[in-house]
Design goal:
By secondary structure, this protein is an alpha+beta fold. Helix content is about 15%, strand content about 50%. It has one domain (about 5-135): Jelly Rolls (Sandwich), CATH 2.60.120.680.
Length: about 140
């Protein structure tokens, strides 16, 4: 179980990713932002871990590379979909040691990278590199 210092570091990293992923400027215009973050987690057997990507605008490119010492199910799902009766992941696949994928967000929302080890018989250590680029363009000025 991670100690308090590690939890604070992970929390700070998640906040930095959120700031890099999307920003709102004066006047309510959404501007494209970008950034890269690396997150290391241990997913206990029978559990999931979730990494939240806050406030991604529609049209944002999200590239993910994951390396793990075991197998996991990986999904990327929007907060909007999580609230629906039948949520559909933007991406879902099985990971065996490593994988990469890239998607374009279809709606403005928080997004969640889910690392699922519910069927695993031992903990899996994973490291994700997440790159966020682009997004909704600001409205044209006349």
């Amino acid at each position: 179980m991670p100690g308090p210092l590690l939890k604070k570091c992970l929390h700070a990293l998640f906040q930095a990713l959120a700031l890099a992923a999307a920003s709102l400027l004066a006047g309510g215009e959404a501007w494209a932002a970008g950034g890269t973050a690396q997150v290391s987690v241990e997913v206990p057997e029978g559990k999931t871990k979730t990494i939240r990507l806050r406030n991604l605008p529609s049209g944002t490119s999200v590239a993910v590379r994951i390396e793990a010492d075991g197998t996991l199910v990986v999904a990327l799902v929007s907060g909007v979909q999580l609230k629906s009766r039948k949520p559909e992941a933007l991406f879902r696949a099985s990971l065996d040691r490593r994988m990469s994928f890239k998607v374009i967000t279809q709606e403005s929302s928080h997004y969640y990278l889910v690392l699922d080890n519910r069927r695993g018989s031992e903990a899996v250590k994973a490291r994700a590199t997440i790159r966020v680029e682009g997004g909704a363009s600001p409205p044209a000025k006349h």
